[in-house]
Amino acid sequence: MMMVKMKGFWFGIGVGIFSAIVVFVIGLKGAMQSSTIFFSGGVVPPPSLRVKSVLTPATDRSSMATSSNGPKWAQKTITLPPQRRGCHLITPKILKEIGQDLSDFNCGLAHVFLQHTSASLTINENYDPDVQADTETFLNRIVPEGSSAPWRHTMEGPDDMPAHIKSSMFGCQLTIPITKGKLNMGTWQGIWLCEHRDDPTSRKVVVTLNGI
After folding, report:
1. Can you give the pLDDT at residue 5?
2. Which of 123, 142, 169, 211 has the highest count of CB atoms within 10 angstroms of its CB?
3. How far apart are CA 89 and CA 128, in angstroms?
4. For residue range 49-85, what is the model confidence (pLDDT) as tens digits?
5. If phi over 0 gives left and psi between -120 and 50 gives alpha, with beta otherwise, what is residue 86?
6. Residues 179-199, buried b or exposed e (16+ Cβ, 10 A)?
7. CB 65 within 8 A of CB 107
8. 102 CB contacts (<8 Å, ≥6 apart)?
């Protein structure tokens, strides 16, 4: 009789341990299924975590110009006197017109915009005028002009359509850095106005200054 009771006791313990193992396995399987998607073609792992990066501003700003007043703007429209056909250095004229405003900027950009389609702006040699003459020679050789030219737009004269093409070649705007109240150009760099029409006419340039 005692033997039967002992067997029943150990049988009950065994059943309890087995039940606990079954519950544990079922729970583990459910956890794995919650993080893994099963398809007929195989197993697709759970999506990777996305980590959002946060950039922390540098604490050492000694190499950057700063201003407690924030960025500033200034703008002026300059009328340039009529120039003969060719390339002309206009840096002194521009600086004369914007010098006072320019001196208020420690760091920034100067944007120079020409309001015409038959002239252009470029930055080039500021010392030897032969460079200006050679550039005009080059432009006249690569853009045909006269009765033999293939242009359809001729109502404003044979030099008008070539002037439009040359204007697009060099462009009508420049961006120049400002450093400590001055245009930060190279030693031999200057601003050119390239006049592409035969009849001289005044030209307007809008200069916009932005910085601190």
Report:
1. 44
2. 211
3. 10
4. 443 434 334 334 333 444 457 899 999 999 999 999 9
5. left
6. eeeebebeeebbbbbbbbbee
7. yes
8. 95, 110, 178, 181, 182, 183, 209
Distance, in Å, from the CA atom of 103 to the CA atom of 179, rounded to the nearest integer, reads 9
Annotate 4-25 with b (16+ C-beta within 10 A) or e (fewer): eeeeeeeeeeeeeeeeeeeeee
Instruction: Give the neighbor-by-neighbor strand order of the sheet with 173-179.
Output: 72-80, 203-211, 107-114, 173-179, 182-183
Predicted local distance difference test score (pLDDT) of residue 38 = 39
pTM for this prediction = 0.69
d(CA 199, CA 209): 31
Determine the Cα–Cα distance for residues 117 and 155; give it in Å rounded to an integer.
15
